[in-house]
Write a structure and sequence with these properties.
The protein is mainly α. Helix content is 73%, strand content 0%. The protein has helices at 9-17, 21-43, 46-62, 73-104, 113-118, 120-130, 135-146, 151-158, 162-177, 186-196.
């Protein structure tokens, strides 16, 4: 039996402070699911949430010497995950907004990102993009991104495995993000903003 498992959290944090990988692993398994759920609540994207979860714990490991064992580790984790999530959303929105301005001369005072997204033209372009996906992938993507259903809910509804759902979402995301579109990526940007920008 691993003696680390029964150690109080404060002792685990002390060992983490000194670079103990086993203590880090135990803390990861204790908190990863709840932190993942917290990130997913803000992003509604399981693939991105998984990536950001890894970023959170990478940040923990890199800054382990700065962690105070006498302070709440859970609170520290939630603060760290919130900051990483908000920074991701802010950075993505700024990058997409910049690309729209550069590529299409969108004037901020007249055509803000929110106005573009609210336009009928935007929704038409989004629909055109989604219609380029294979039928099953399109349905899975809509259920996940637009209806905010979990992978498990989609799998049960469609009678397929969670792994199959995940595979379709990953491939759909890759297609969209690569900008393989007729209009130089404009509808890709719109869809990305629609799905990931701060609400």
């Amino acid at each position: 039996m691993d003696i680390h498992q029964n150690l109080p959290e404060q002792e685990l944090l002390c060992q983490l402070h000194h670079g103990d990988m086993r203590a880090f692993d135990i803390l990861y398994h204790r908190y990863s699911q709840v932190i993942y759920a917290n990130i997913l609540k803000f992003l509604k994207d399981e693939t991105v949430a998984e990536d950001l979860l890894q970023d959170v714990f990478l940040r923990i490991w890199e800054n382990r010497s700065k962690i105070d064992p006498d302070q709440s580790f859970a609170a520290f984790l939630f603060t760290c995950s919130r900051n990483i999530t908000f920074n991701f959303k802010r950075r993505l929105k700024l990058e997409l907004e910049s690309e729209l301005h550069l590529a299409y001369g969108v004037v901020e005072s007249e055509n803000t990102i929110d106005k573009v997204l609210d336009s009928k033209e935007a929704m038409v372009l989004v629909e055109e993009l989604l219609n380029k996906l294979p039928k099953q992938r399109q349905k899975i993507f809509r259920l996940s991104k637009l209806d905010s259903k979990s992978y498990q809910e989609i799998a049960e509804e469609m009678g397929i495995s969670i792994a199959t759902v995940r595979d379709h979402i990953v491939k759909a995301n890759k297609f969209i993000r690569n900008g393989a579109l007729q209009d130089n990526g404009f509808s890709t940007l719109l869809l990305a903003l629609l799905l990931y920008s701060a609400k």
